[in-house]
């Protein structure tokens, strides 16, 4: 029996639509005595990340906590944070294709409180039917409540909502919540995703 195409798409931001090029930092480590990767690792430690992505800390407070943990200077943190990555135009074209075909599309991301500033910076403020930021919602992926709220907002049953993310834990959480979920590995996945949406 052929599966009914998904009626809505939930797509992750970092690692799927937005990426960061390590080469963009140049001689950052030589100038500041600390590697950008070390700052990121500190920021992703759960004790710092969780309050930042659930709206209990502002992005600046999160950055300050990274500075306290790593000893990085304010100048180093400001320079590190100024680079906001780049948008994968192939993935963005897929988002536009899905919307043009009548599929509702939501951005589904664990983010700090400045996500909407980033979307405006990239010209993406109107690129989605809804934006689900964990900092706004107070709950993060892969919690069932996160996916339930997103599906309600998109007015789509979980079984007809396709979730795309680059993190296995989030994929498992989405499937447990009843969504169709696919792990993002790169542009070669788009053929399957288009098929799942009936495009």
Characterization of this structure:
By secondary structure, the chain is an alpha/beta fold. It folds into 2 domains: 8-19 and 86-196, Rossmann fold (3-Layer(aba) Sandwich); 22-82, no CATH class. Helix content is 46%, strand content 14%. The protein is built from 11 helices and 7 strands. It has helices at 28-32, 36-44, 46-53, 59-70, 74-82, 89-100, 115-121, 134-137, 144-153, 168-176, 190-196; strands spanning 8-11, 18-19, 86-87, 104-109, 130-133, 161-165, 180-183. A 5-stranded parallel sheet has the order 5-4-1-6-7. The longest helix has 12 residues, at 59-70. This is Hydrolase of the HAD superfamily. InterPro entries: HAD-like_sf, HAD-SF_hydro_IA, HAD_sf.
How is the topology of this model organized?
Blueprint: E1 8-11, E2 18-19, H1 28-32, H2 36-44, H3 46-53, H4 59-70, H5 74-82, E3 86-87, H6 89-100, E4 104-109, H7 115-121, E5 130-133, H8 134-137, H9 144-153, E6 161-165, H10 168-176, E7 180-183, H11 190-196
Parallel strand pairs: 1-4, 1-6, 4-5, 6-7
Antiparallel strand pairs: 2-3
Helix pairs in contact: 2-4, 3-4
InterPro entries: HAD-like_sf (IPR036412), HAD-SF_hydro_IA (IPR006439), HAD_sf (IPR023214)
Pfam family, one: Hydrolase
Protein name: Hydrolase of the HAD superfamily
